[in-house]
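Researcher: I'd like a structural prediction for the single chain below. Treat it as a standalone chain; there are no partners to consider.
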Amino acid sequence: MKFTQNVTLIGVVGKKGAGELDNGQKWETDRVELHVITPFPESDSMAHGSTVTCYQVQDYAKNYQDAKALVHQEVVLHLFMQPAKKLGQVGKIICEGFSPVKQHKQAS
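Model: Treating it as a single chain, here is the predicted structure.
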């Protein structure tokens, strides 16, 4: 299931690199972490205000500069709910991309 969420982007961390662990296993990462303000649900009487959530979007070269330019602005996250692989497990929310709110409104 695809959906969008409007959020305020407060930080960006680029993660690009490759290497080898001590046991010889190779690793590689190519992503941007989007740190956003997430309000607590208003129906929850035990939580007030906001927290920070981190979403990972793949492809550092494609996304880092755009994300960096949008820090402290409202953006639209383009998300996908990946179902759990086993019964009783929780599904995963995958960030497929983002756009400025103004651009998203024009495209709608």
